[in-house]
Design brief:
The chain is mainly α and about 120 residues long. The protein has 7 helices and no strands.
Amino acid sequence: MSPEERENLLKYAAKRSIERPTFLASALEIYRQYEQLDEAGLANYFGIPTTQLTRLALSRRPDPDSPTFRQDVTAIAQRYGFPPVKLANLLRRVTAYEEGGTTAPGFLMAARDREDEPEDEE
């Protein structure tokens, strides 16, 4: 099998795994849609080449409620060479999207912007 054929198979598997919440592909796709990112924007978020997204998408999705969440996120981040906080934040945001904590893209960003505003002193 040629490297190109192998890469095409990996892309196919990643695309199919979007429908399975046990894979990171599903979380990456939800985040990408809510944040209105293309593949390059998502890769830029992690600071990795777009070619790494396919393999990242095929990783098992860590459960934010699991006691091993930090270890799982760290292991994935180390494997692909990005800060673990990037993946942890993405997964927590996606969990909020899935649980109905937000209704529109940019909702969490707007909430974060409000935190930066000075509070009124009485």
